[in-house]
């Protein structure tokens, strides 16, 4: 598992230029490769390249690469190569379960066996909490296992297995021949081993190993990647006997080095290309972030932008509009959907053909259905999608000439279509994500209030820099979001409406959890001992300076045991005024990441930072992008560290309101500047130390320990996951292993 591959575009350009220059050099002969039946000594007879059917470009690059190496007879190694059609994660309709070959659950303990973290002090719960493999990780594992079956049943004694993003180092042929000669000499003219790594990345602090010869070592553990290795037939049989694979395959195989005869070349002879992006997604990242093993403050942003636009979608009620809109959002479209009309400022720009529109996809907009001819004329390259509940879209009269769609670029998406991603992505010429197509209930065409609802701003406010993503609208003076009329039936969500009022004089374990983890930007580890429950006061949260391995400070965090979808969430807080300390009241979830924040910085306790993070997708979608969100600073007019005040978030499907002492101080409508978070979240109150001096100032150790008083918590909300249900699902393996980011 390589977590540090560069993704900067210029590196890719330089890399491709270097490869083109390298092809001008003489091709290299490697005697370790020999065609089956012609070998006089142990040799590699076959090369397997794992390649997705939807990635023909990668296969072409691999063919070019394999022409640069010659076998013992002087023929191209490409002649010995077989393409293996990789298992595609996008073909999984749901998260695969356990079978005889793959157990999709592993633990942080498994990870730390391969790559220990000397400074990490995780608790037993953190070590043994199950982590579910991503679909991409499962697909990669299945691809390798399927090739092992071929090798075990085949006639070749040794094969080279490559993933399709490999390139050979200039010294590959010479160095492999040296290592191969030493291995053969060690075994008296036979090459007896199970696996020979020729491509790998050692763990950060080095893999424990013993050298068998000048160019070959035996690892104890600590080699990431399984992207380039030589496998013997006997080794393939042993690997199949050791199944099921538990966790990502490069992690799992490290756990079996003792049972296998594993070798590695002195240095890695094959690397992963710098001009292609990995399609893998790493399930271990949230767990490593929790224990403080990852501390990078680098941007986490969605960088893919669709080329084909604008997109218009129409169809009858109940034909999957809301699911399609979410799918387009997952592809990087800024998508306006399920409205009876557009805000007048957006409609004027759309019909005028202006480029400074807010949106590039319009799904199920009632007022546009009568203007299809006009849109077709204004945007001749537009993409149209017709949703339907019947096999024949013409049954609805949506493809007739009278609709202005004659000769338009149209795709028909049937509600019952099994592979919706294929239909949509082939139409829009983009790669589908390795996730299930979202399945959401249709919202229908909601009424909008075109008159802007102005909040009386009694306090000054400032808008700092925001994330640049498809799900954050750039700051524009004329855009105030979309004011959607509230649904007549309230929130219209399933769940149990609950009212909770807790003065926090003791810990109610039916409602709250004391966290014992951390996150990237936090300089402290959360510890339950840093919260003191006091009668008549509430909970006292402390920040202390103490060495805890990965962190030199400890902090405090309390979160709800249950998840909630919409409601009012309030905490009575006397914030810390110590520089560097942040007091937070917020709702949060991962996969996809959504968040609604209130934060008070210790160096500026007279103002609030309110923020929203939005990512698209249904439950489990690994869209966790963004590190700034869409923040706004609001001047309070008082010092929140002097006495307790009530801070509240009111969250509904059509708006978010922030209140202080029952006074509305800020409001956001739909797309102002983000969509409204739409998935269940947990409620949190915490006090922590930020790495960012810009956010809360420079830490003053002389002001520590610092305290925040939480006088009580009150909420009125839809509980959609009861604690007992969640524990039951966790035991059965149906859970989300990602923990809150802050």
Characteristic key phrases:
alpha+beta, globular, 8-stranded mixed β-sheet, 15 helices, disordered C terminus, 742 residues, disordered N terminus, 17-stranded mixed β-sheet
Helix content: 10-25%
Distance between the termini: 25 Å
Number of helical stretches of at least 4 residues:
15
**Percent in strands:** 25-35%
How would you characterize this protein structure?
The protein has 742 residues and is an alpha+beta fold. The protein is 19% helix and 28% strand. It contains 15 helices and 38 strands. The strands form 7 sheets. It has a 17-stranded mixed beta sheet that branches. An 8-stranded mixed beta sheet has the order 4-2-8-13-10-15-12-11, with helices on both faces. A 5-stranded parallel beta sheet has the order 18-19-17-20-21, with helices on one face. Helix 5 (135-153) crosses helix 7. It is globular and about 85 Å long. Residues 1-8 and 722-741 have low confidence and may be disordered.
SSE map:
Blueprint: H1 9-22, E1 28-29, E2 46-51, H2 56-66, E3 69-70, E4 81-85, E5 102-103, E6 105-107, H3 108-114, H4 124-128, E7 130-132, H5 135-153, E8 158-163, E9 166-168, H6 172-186, E10 195-202, E11 209-211, E12 216-219, E13 223-232, H7 233-242, E14 245-246, H8 249-254, E15 262-265, E16 270-272, H9 285-290, E17 311-314, H10 321-330, E18 335-339, H11 344-352, E19 361-365, H12 372-378, E20 383-388, E21 409-414, H13 420-428, E22 461-462, E23 496-502, E24 512-514, E25 524-526, E26 531-534, E27 538-545, E28 553-560, E29 563-574, E30 581-589, E31 594-601, E32 607-613, E33 632-635, E34 645-651, E35 655-660, E36 663-669, E37 682-689, H14 693-696, E38 706-721, H15 723-732
Parallel strand pairs: 1-3, 2-4, 2-8, 5-14, 10-15, 17-19, 17-20, 18-19, 20-21, 25-28
Antiparallel strand pairs: 6-7, 8-13, 9-16, 10-13, 11-12, 12-15, 22-33, 23-38, 24-28, 26-27, 27-28, 27-38, 28-37, 29-34, 29-38, 30-31, 30-37, 31-32, 32-33, 34-35, 35-36
Helix pairs in contact: 5-7
């Amino acid at each position: 598992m390589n977590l540090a591959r560069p993704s900067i575009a210029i590196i890719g350009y330089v890399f491709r230029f270097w490869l083109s220059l390298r092809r001008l050099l003489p091709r290299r002969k490697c005697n370790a490769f020999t065609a089956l039946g012609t070998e006089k000594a142990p040799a590699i007879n076959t090369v397997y390249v794992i390649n997705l059917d939807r990635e023909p470009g990668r296969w072409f690059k691999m063919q070019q690469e394999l022409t640069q190496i010659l076998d013992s007879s002087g023929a191209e190694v490409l002649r010995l190569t077989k393409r293996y059609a990789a298992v595609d994660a996008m073909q999984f309709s749901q998260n695969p379960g356990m079978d005889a070959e793959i157990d999709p659950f592993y633990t942080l303990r498994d990870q730390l066996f391969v790559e220990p973290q000397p400074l990490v002090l995780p608790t037993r719960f953190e070590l043994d909490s199950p982590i579910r493999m991503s679909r991409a990780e499962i697909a990669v594992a299945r691809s390798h296992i399927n090739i092992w079956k071929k090798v075990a049943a085949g006639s070749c004694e040794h094969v080279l297995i490559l993933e399709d993003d490999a390139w050979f180092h200039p010294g590959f042929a010479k160095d492999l021949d040296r290592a191969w000669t030493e291995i053969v000499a060690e075994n008296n003219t036979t090459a007896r081993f199970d696996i020979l790594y020729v491509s790998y990345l050692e763990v950060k602090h080095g893999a424990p190993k013993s050298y068998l010869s000048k160019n070959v070592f035996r690892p104890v553990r600590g080699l990431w990647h399984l992207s380039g290795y030589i496998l013997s037939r006997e080794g393939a049989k042993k690997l199949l006997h050791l199944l099921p694979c538990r966790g990502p395959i490069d992690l799992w195989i490290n756990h079996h080095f003792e049972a296998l005869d594993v070798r590695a070349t002195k240095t890695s002879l094959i690397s992963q290309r710098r001009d292609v992006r990995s399609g893998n997604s790493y399930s271990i990242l949230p767990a490593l972030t929790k224990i403080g093993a990852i501390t990078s403050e680098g941007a986490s942003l969605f960088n893919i932008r669709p080329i084909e636009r604008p997109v218009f979608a129409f169809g009858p009620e109940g034909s999957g509009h809301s699911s399609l809109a979410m799918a387009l959002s997952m592809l990087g479209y800024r998508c306006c959907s399920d409205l009876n009309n557009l805000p007048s400022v957006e409609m004027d720009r759309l019909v005028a053909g202006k480029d400074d529109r807010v949106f590039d996809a319009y799904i199920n907009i009632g007022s546009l259905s009568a203007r299809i001819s006009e849109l077709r004329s204004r945007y001749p390259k537009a993409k149209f999608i017709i949703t339907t509940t019947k096999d024949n879209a013409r049954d609805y009269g949506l493809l007739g000439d009278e609709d202005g769609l004659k000769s338009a670029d149209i795709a028909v998406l049937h509600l019952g279509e099994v592979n919706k991603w294929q239909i949509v992505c082939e139409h829009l010429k983009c790669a589908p994500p390795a996730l299930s197509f979202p399945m959401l209930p249709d919202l229908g065409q909601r009424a909008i209030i075109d008159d802007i609802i102005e909040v009386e701003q009694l306090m000054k406010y400032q808008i700092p820099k925001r994330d640049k993503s498809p799900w954050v609208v750039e700051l524009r003076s004329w855009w105030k979001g979309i004011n959607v009329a509230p649904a007549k039936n309230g929130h219209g969500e399933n769940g149990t409406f609950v009212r909770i009022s807790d003065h926090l004089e003791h810990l109610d374990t039916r409602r709250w959890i004391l966290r014992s983890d951390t996150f990237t930007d936090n300089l402290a580890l959360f510890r339950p001992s840093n919260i003191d429950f006091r009668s008549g006061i509430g909970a006292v949260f402390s920040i202390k300076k103490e060495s805890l391995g990965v962190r030199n400070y400890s902090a405090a965090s309390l979160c709800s045991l249950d998840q909630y979808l919409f409601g009012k969430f309030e905490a009575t807080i006397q914030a810390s005024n110590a520089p560097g300390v942040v007091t937070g009241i917020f709702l949060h979830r991962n996969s996809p990441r959504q968040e609604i924040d209130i934060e008070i910085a210790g160096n500026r306790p007279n103002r609030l930072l309110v923020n929203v993070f939005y990512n698209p997708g249904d439950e489990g979608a690994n869209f966790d992008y963004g590190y700034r969100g869409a923040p706004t600073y609001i001047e309070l007019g008082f010092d929140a560290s002097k006495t307790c005040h009530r801070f509240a978030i009111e969250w509904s499907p059509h708006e978010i309101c922030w209140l202080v002492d029952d006074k509305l101080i800020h409001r956001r409508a739909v797309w102002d500047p983000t969509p409204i978070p739409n998935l269940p979240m947990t409620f949190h109150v915490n006090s922590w130390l930020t790495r960012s001096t810009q956010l809360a100032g420079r830490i003053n150790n002389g002001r520590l320990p610092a305290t925040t008083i939480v006088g009580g918590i009150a909420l009125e909300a839809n509980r959609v996951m009861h604690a007992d249900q969640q524990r039951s699902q966790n035991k059965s393996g149906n859970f989300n292993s990602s923990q809150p980011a802050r």
